[in-house]
Specification:
Largest sheet: none
Shape: globular
Strand content: under 5%
Radius of gyration: 21 Å
Number of helices: 22
Number of strands: 0
Structural class: mainly alpha
Distance between the termini: 49 Å
Order of helices and strands: HHHHHHHHHHHHHHHHHHHHHH
Amino acid sequence: MASLISIVWIILAGFWAGQGVRRLGLPPLLGMVGAGILLGPEVSGLLDTELLGAAAAFRTIAVMIILMKAGLGLDRQKLRQQGSVALRLGFLPALSEALLIAVASVGLLGLDWRTGLILGCVIGAESPAVIVPGMLRLKSLGWGVSKGIPDAILTGSALSDVLLLLLFSLLMAGLSPERGGEGLELPIWLGFSLQVVCQIGLGIVAGWWMARLERWLFTQHHWAQNVGQEVLITAAFALGMVVAAERLPIFSGYLAVMAAGFFLIEMDPPLADRLRRGFDHLWVGAEIFLFVLLGSQLPLSVLTERLGVGILILGIGTLLGRSLGWYLSTVGSNWTLKERLFLLPANSAKATVQAAIGAIPLSQGLSGGEDILALSALSILLTAPLGAWAIPTFAPRLLERGEVDPSKSPVDGDPGEQARRT
């Protein structure tokens, strides 16, 4: 019963706080995170501890939904146009930010290099919960679509998270070399490279097979009787893909989910359109749970101790590290200076990955784990609401507006803005 009451608190408090903040012209997620802080154990303690213990499961479901939305919103033609940029965005900004954060944390916090790199991997990851809805909204309104800028950012964000999560797991394992079946030792760089290729390649293949299975079930043999059943079974397949990847970590489950949505657009556009609308509805509830539970687990007491130096380290990583990566990613492209500048507000938000792995170093007794947890929380509080506000604010100032393809774009843009277009 206590868990059910907690769910009621999450839904009502998260919804009203989000709507109240939205009426002030701020991102709704800011209100949801604030509601979570008030409901959490460090303030009122209204949420049941068993429910808080299941927060990771809720978070996984929410991220699965948002990545399926991302895949269903991609455009192959635009990705082909900006393919090299998307690929570079998947590696260079995240790696340069992680390296500069490591350097800054060694100098300012006194961490060792391994711990500094772990911190860099945690902070450098991008938030699909903020970036994906923002980019899909831009696609629905036409901002940057002529050059495929939202598609390039969506793809690069997914690839960068795969890369940093792999590097994080290797660093947490002590950078032990991979071993073959007969005791053959591989160099660290080679083992890491093989893991990256395997995770990305097999993730894409798994997504392709999932899309084929969906088409076989729903279009060719009509197993589903309505859209609700199609969405429910697709969500179950996608969640199963994520769970399977955790049990058998040879492919990226999250990348597989996003790839499945992308392939569905190419294989069966009407089915993809129905699923896109269904996952839009699922996200309404998932968003509330994601950000309220996120706020309820922020370590406020640890956070205040590292506030000043944390802001400085985050600034170094974002303003210097990411800026270098963004510049290198767009060299030789047809992006204008304004479009390159848009990457700063569009691609800097942190939330889901930091919430998922920020506490792992501390839980495993790593020296400096409290600093990693504190800066993870700080990055969420600063960049998540800022990114959600900055994407729609700066898009009209820095991007050009193009024609929207309704079959390959979400339909949930701002009604008032869409009305002005017509």
